[in-house]
What we know:
This protein is α+β, with helices and mostly antiparallel strands. The chain has a domain of 128 residues: T-fold. It contains 8 helices and 16 strands. α1 runs antiparallel to α6, α3 packs parallel to α7 and α6 runs antiparallel to α7. The mean pLDDT is 94.
Amino acid sequence: xxxxxxxxxxxxxxxxxxxxxxxxxxxxxxxxxxxxxxxxxxxxxxxxxxxxxxxxxxxxxxxxxxxxxxxxxxxxxxxxxxxxxxxxxxxxxxxxxxxxxxxxxxxxxxxxxxxxxxxxxxxxxxxxxxxxxxxxxxxxxxxxxxxxxxxxxxxxxxxxxxxxxxxxxxxxxxxxxxxxxxxxxxxxxxxxxxxxxxxxxxxxxxxxxxxxxxxxxxxxxxxxxxxxxxxxxxxxxxxxxxxxxxxxxxxxxxxxxxxxxxxxxxxxxxxxxxxxxxxxxxxxxxxxxx
Length: 290
């Protein structure tokens, strides 16, 4: 019999499906480990908590020692930052707050400012981060996907090899027998419809659509230079072995073409444009409804 954990964390709804029979004691142990690890990640990287490491960095410059998990996240962020010429940036935090995407979710827009550059704000040589000035960092472009990867590692460390982690649509699926997971790809213009079904064997699928978090003329992605939310793309899905990579590339594809990213990442994509057209990479595992 399957085990299902369902809970709220980091501002999103989580569903963890374990497709193996677990004892009641192992169920309790595993759920505790999952929620404990989410709590640790949130304590370090959430800009919505007053007591987080990120909150401290926004108030005081200096040298900070980061946890081991920071190395992979900063590595990917730096690559994507450079490939998008600074449009995907962890320095977007202040701008998001100014746009109303703040701790209180006030959605009250103030005057927006262009973020500083990576090298002007900090230097990162693992495990130390030298904050040259106080600055509010935001890891929303890839952080949730990375946490999904981390929770996948927690589950596997407990001897489970057949599971799915779904954090608000950022998903990691692991199956020894390669049984495929069917995922419906929602039409953001009509949420009662799907464009098609993605068939995931092993790995991650992540999606991004402006209809999920939008207010006024903004949604959760803001161009740090034009200070506007992109409107030419209405939905992006990517697949990769890593949810961190899949997640951050859904944002990157709002700013650059797939060809810019392909030399650096192994991934597939499905991009839907505002005019109703779309592009699909040759390896994206979709059963498209036409």
